[in-house]
Amino acid sequence: MSFIRKPLNRRSILRAGAMGGVALATPTIITSRAWSQGYLNEPTGSDVVFGFNVPQTGAYADEGADELRAYQLAVKHLNGEGDGGLLNTFSSKELQGNGVNGKKVAFVTGDTQTKSDAARASAKRMIEKDGAIMITGGSSSGVAVAVQSLCQEAGVIFMAGLTHSNDTTGKDKRKNGFRHFFNTEMTGSALAPVLKNNYGTDRKAYHLTADYTWGWSQEESIKKYTEDMGWETVAAVRTPLGAGDFSQYLTPVLNSGADVLVLNHYGKDMVNSLTQAVQFGLRDKQVNGKEFTIVVPLYSRLMAQGAGENVKGIFGSTNWHWSLQDEGSKAFVKSFGQEYGFPPSQAAHTCYVQALLYADAAQRAGTFEPCAIAAALEGFEFDGMGNGPTLYRAEDHQCFKDVLVVKGKDNPTSQFDLLEVVEVTPRAQVEYPADMLGGELGACNNGV
Amino acid sequence: MDVFLLQLLNGLDKGGAYALIALGLTLIFGTLGVVNFAHGALFMLGAFCAVAFNKFLSLEVITTDPERTTAWGTPLEIRTRYVEAYLGDIGAWVVNYSVPVSILLAIPVMLLVGFVMERGLIKHFYKRPHADQILVTFGLAIVLQEIIKSIFGANPIPQPAPDAVRGAADIGAVFGFDPGVIVYPYWRMVYLGFAAAVIAAVFAFLQFTTFGMVVRAGMADRDTVGLLGIHIERRFTVVFAIAAVVAGLAGVMYTPILPPDYHMGMDFLVLSFVVVVVGGMGSLPGAVAAGFLLGILQSFASMNEVKAILPGIDQIIIYLVAVVILLVRPRGLLGRKGVMEN
Description:
By secondary structure, chain A is of the alpha/beta class.
């Protein structure tokens, strides 16, 4: 007996295909998690899956590797393994080292490649295929903004990793997105007074700026605060991301009349531009009767390692540094150092803290429902995580805490001891009105 | 005027690097007909020869001081370099000159890499389409990159120039400019001289040695040279290895300018292919000329005065030049007629 009574033609194949498609889709629609669950990826078994989306290849791969180490350590501590790390010093005592909401924490990883499209694709995969309840991680504000937007659309919480552009919690902020890391506005307000004390108010600055969201934001903030204190901006030149050789951009600085070079670069770009600026003798120059000065607004220990001795004496800011002596920082450095044999970077710290803050909010909310967790994080005040008393501001989901101004150390004692903290700028000095950076949080999305 | 001259120097310097990489690419294409997308990886491997040599020289005797502990509670390690512990000032001198001295390591390593690569992989793709060659060599480049990343990490590793040539020279004063107006890093001048010397050496080798004469003949007409009883394949293997050495040496000497990382080869690869195409596929003088030309144009396009008129020109100038040259003269500046014109 044949089920095909007529000869096959294009129309009958199309019709059969459409009917088959409907038939195959029907059980999926009926049993879809979207219909049976209260929110997207609601965990039903004994595990809850976190999605760690970090750069495993590309320019920030080393930073990403450190972030991943921190996340793995956070998972260990959440599940009651290891020494507990910051759970011991965290002011909230909800997490007991027995998982979150009675479920053991599992995780999946994705590679952002420091590219927005790749980062979105890996986050999407973790949400749709692996059932990740939240996404965290990233290095680069471009990536953070893109992934935050995807998480908002999908209906999961995004806990940003290293992202410093104002836009992440400014014009591109989202109700489902949260940032622990500081931003360029805070860098500007913390760094400017230190620059004034060390170099005076009569200075001419030349900016070289990475041509993407973070660079623009950094340039704008530093210009704003240095011009307010009397510095003149001679020029602000955009350089392509990953330019490699910056010599053609440094050459005009030499005889521009500027006596300060501000490098609004990060990662490999900063390593290259600073190395080459020193090669061109900029640090040995005298201009306008003053010693020529270089400023690197955003530092990281990994960048300082790449730039070697060129960082000596150069000021910048950082979110956290392993040499801090508060109980939280000491606990994290001890835990991370014993696990991996070297101190954590600021990227590792912010990512570890974000994972714990998410878990704590879920525990306090008693659910993994994104909107309940968002509500638990909004306006949450905490301490013991290494940055002093901190507030997750409800209006823009930006953390407010003390900001560190650091300087390249003249006599480092080890390959990790490259930066010294010269000032801890109090939180009150770096706070700004919630509506200053624009943007709208919009509505929370549970994904159903 | 001073900025103009400085940009000219920058362009020559950058052009030197482009020319060295493009020279190797052209040698390989001209002799073997292979489009080698792993050539940037050879540049990167050369740079990591310098890193490896420096790491070797920096091997340390590690003792612990139980009285002092690290921030994470383990005994503090006290590190002393073997080379300085046993050789004193001579050891310190060798470490200081590790970049130029590592050329001695890079030459045999790159020769070996070239031989193995050509015999082990490339030769199987001679008769395959260019698309296959590109895919396999690009894949090889990624494999090499990942190997280097797994050994050395992804963070750039600083390789300072020797103390004697660190910093910048006041070259303007020599030509009557005011002091401090035209200063240029010593090492970049060393690099420019080195690039010129390597390019001259390759040309001399091809021009004035019997081996070079046979290779040039083979580039012109491979079949006829083969009919004369000359084992041209073997010589082409040597040429591939020489091209690897040229790329490797370019990488070694570039390390003080650009702290090496595993991805540096890819950053140069695309630019170098543009250089080869602009110069003319298979033309050695074309590769050198186009390398310097594009390096200089790129530098001038980055001047603030130029960007004020044409924003973003610095990022597209070399592709713009490539488009114009290929439209006007499809075989490239000094390319041979018929090569890659179809």
